[in-house]
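In this supplementary section we document a worked example of the pipeline. Step one takes a protein sequence of length 174 as its only input; no multiple sequence alignment statistics are reported here. Step two produces a three-dimensional model, which step three serialises into structure tokens for compact storage. The input and output of this example are shown verbatim.
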Amino acid sequence: MIYAVHQYQAPLADQRAECRRMLAKLLLQHGIDDPDPTVEHEPSGRPCLPQHPGINISLSHCRSHVAVAISDNGPIGIDVECRRRVNPALVARVCNADEQRAIATAADPEMEFVRLWTRKEAYLKQLGTGIQGFGSLPDTEAKSAADGLETTTLPLGNAYISLCHKPLDVPTSA
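The serialised model returned by step three reads:
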């Protein structure tokens, strides 16, 4: 599993082109020489590479960042989001009571919401449901852990990135 994040401010069409360029670079790092990978979408909306069926991908972009992840260890989800205004109706719909309290009491409620949102969206992308799964998953953290997945979240200035994946099978030494 490898991923890359690039700070990149550009119109949406340019961000999508940058995602494809980053994907080609990550594939090359993974030993696959495909300078112009064809990205298609499964019926659920999950992006895929039909010419490389053993490789799973996830793509995301916001105003200032582009993020791409690839994995040969099962589905992967990545999300990057920039600071956004807190919408109380959205918070009530997608966050459980503990998350709502965390947002309300945070020193920076906007960034706390973005942190939680990226974790939820990365998890749902890993599942292949995308954000339409938000309404049915009020406690994403518990569900992700119960599914045996790992989610890593990192701050990127006025943005957050989260990556959700199946843990790598790491051999233990005897």
